[in-house]
Specification:
By secondary structure, the protein is an alpha+beta fold. It contains 6 helices and 18 strands. A hairpin with a 6-residue loop joins strand 7 and strand 8. It is elongated and about 75 Å long.
């Protein structure tokens, strides 16, 4: 009979099958943790690169803005009360700025203010789509904030400060406090995707997309050329109200915008438009709503527009001429 030698196991001998799970890379077990870490790193990187460019608008911090060129800050038009405004920079420096270029109906202004060494932010080449990551920065109430969200909707519109419809917005989920309007919505590379405007609902914010067309308009504001849109000089009732009023006086139904009032000496009054006229077409476009008329009037290069109107039951054409002078820098 042969002898069998037994050896006690050495507790220090490592067995690869008995690895301590606490020693493993936590990201290997949880890929979501790696994603969260990556997004956190992105937020810190964007914040570090952009924070010096974001400013507070107004002494009480009623809004935000950001540097887009040397001595030029972009913000929302509704953040200004008059043609001068206090601007506070990230280094706590306070400067008095003045209105340089305005697109009041588009809710954008450029302020002339010494920006020092605060670098301008660059615009993104791509436009946002649903799911695009957004890093939003603001200094409302003199408190810097940087938050992460995602684009939740595109092709949004809103009413500007003077009631005109502003198109070309996107909705995102980056949480922002009061005083954030006018601040930038950035992509993961720190480039500007849009200008934040206002909260919508619970947990959503609306931004105006800085696409190529809006970048061109902002460049005009930076150069000191304010936007002057053509107006007819009329007060209008929408199509549904117009239909009720026409039925009330026995006139046949017709889609259009009812003239309820006229600006004395305005383009429409000068052309012969009267209170009670129904505007049914402008430059060949059926006026199914006020936005249709705004689109016609905003087209570039228009010096006159042909209006199709119905006066009572008679249809006629009137040509309205505009005398809008080229926009000049504010005095």
């Amino acid at each position: 009979m042969s002898d069998h030698l037994s050896h006690d196991a050495n507790p220090n001998d490592a067995n690869p099958n008995d690895a301590n799970p606490h020693d493993a890379d936590p990201h290997a077990a949880d890929p979501h943790a790696a994603w969260i870490d990556d997004m956190a790193a992105t937020i810190r990187r964007v914040d570090e690169a952009a924070r010096r460019s974001v400013v507070t608008i107004g002494r009480n911090g009623r809004g935000s803005g950001f540097v887009i060129a040397a001595d030029r800050v972009l913000t929302s038009a509704h953040n200004l009360r008059d043609e001068t405004v206090s601007v506070t920079f990230a280094d706590a420096r306070v400067e008095q700025g003045s209105l340089h270029g305005a697109d009041a109906d588009g809710d954008l202004v450029v302020v002339d203010v010494p920006t020092g060494d605060a670098p301008p932010l660059d615009f993104a080449d791509a436009t946002p789509v649903v799911g695009t990551a957004v890093v939003a920065l603001a200094r409302g109430g003199h408190r810097p904030r940087t938050t992460l969200g995602f684009v939740s909707g595109v092709d949004r519109s809103f009413d500007g400060p003077r009631g005109r419809t502003v198109r070309g917005g996107f909705e995102h989920t980056a949480a922002l406090a009061r005083g954030s309007s006018g601040g930038p919505a950035l992509d993961a590379g720190g480039k500007v995707l849009g200008v934040n405007t206002h909260r919508v609902g619970e947990g959503f914010y609306l931004a105006r997309t800085t696409d190529a067309a809006l970048q061109a308009r902002i460049a005009e504001l930076v150069a000191g050329r304010s936007v002057q849109r053509r107006i007819l000089g009329v007060a209008l009732a929408p199509t549904e109200v117009a239909a009720k009023l026409r039925r009330a006086v026995g006139l046949p139904d017709r889609a259009g915008l009812l003239v309820r009032g006229l600006v004395e000496g305005g383009p429409a009054a000068a052309a012969g438009v009267q209170v009670g006229d129904l505007l049914v077409r402008a430059a060949g476009t059926d006026l199914v709503d006020v936005e249709a008329l705004q689109t016609v009037l905003d087209a570039p290069g228009i010096e006159a527009v042909e209006l199709g109107i119905v006066r009572g039951s008679e249809e006629r054409t009137i040509v309205v001429r505009f005398t809008v002078a080229p926009a000049e820098p504010p005095a």
